[in-house]
Model the fold of this input.
Amino acid sequence: MHVGFVVGLDEVDRTRVAEVGGKGANLGELSRLDGVRVPPGFCVATTSADLPAAHMPMTSCPDLLAKEIAAS
Done:
């Protein structure tokens, strides 16, 4: 399943820990609890680490992430 590189905290819960890591999943869970204030945010999905360097030089990675953040 492709999830994109940027996932909003409002889309994350403990079922997506493999995609966003434990901290991201916990923040997503906390953001749903009444009385707990979590600033709006996002996670960079673990799928971004799977991209072969030959197909995506590191110099282009910040630009790609910036585009996904702006679109979310």
